[in-house]
Amino acid sequence: MGYLLPADYVAFGLTADTADAWVTTASAMIEAYCRRPSLMSASYTERMRIPLRAQSVRLSYGPLISVDAVRAQYSRPGYGDDFYGDFAYQTGFAVAFALPGQWVDVDPTTLYVSLPTGEFRFPWNVMGMRYTEAEVTYTGGLTTVPNAVQVACAQIVRNAQATPGLNVKSSKMDTLQTQYFSDSLIDSQVQALLRPYVAERLG
Question: What contacts 117, CB < 8 A, 6 or more positions away?
Fold first, then answer.
């Protein structure tokens, strides 16, 4: 999808007759740079490792809107694991019921969720066991296109339209001065605007 509507072209520094294909291409470049299929809200399913002590994960595609479903795998503690030494009784009880290594459904309402950071933490369970892996289905992305993304889209279009074959922006022979365009359509200014929307992990 295009992150800039035709009615907004002039307001963001483009001419009214700018071809929609420029904006479509710029929007595709934004998605590729941010390593995600779309910046708008969508449902994602990710499988990830869970740090044993922290019991928290950061999801890839923010901003996080909601955590919809979670399946997690109980850890398989070793007898020499110092961390589980404090929970020897709980661990022994869990092993007796073949819980280590099992996948269980986790109620999303029991999670400690931080929407701004896209992180959530698992709560303690009654046996003190922890999780090592999770499969999370969640909704993440933008509900409306912010000005920063619109400005970035317009800047990419301007960079593309203004870059000639020799990459020369202007030249003054009397002062021996030559100005060049950026060597990339996604320049440092665009990168700064898009930084909050780049996926946390490759995917």
Answer: 58, 62, 64
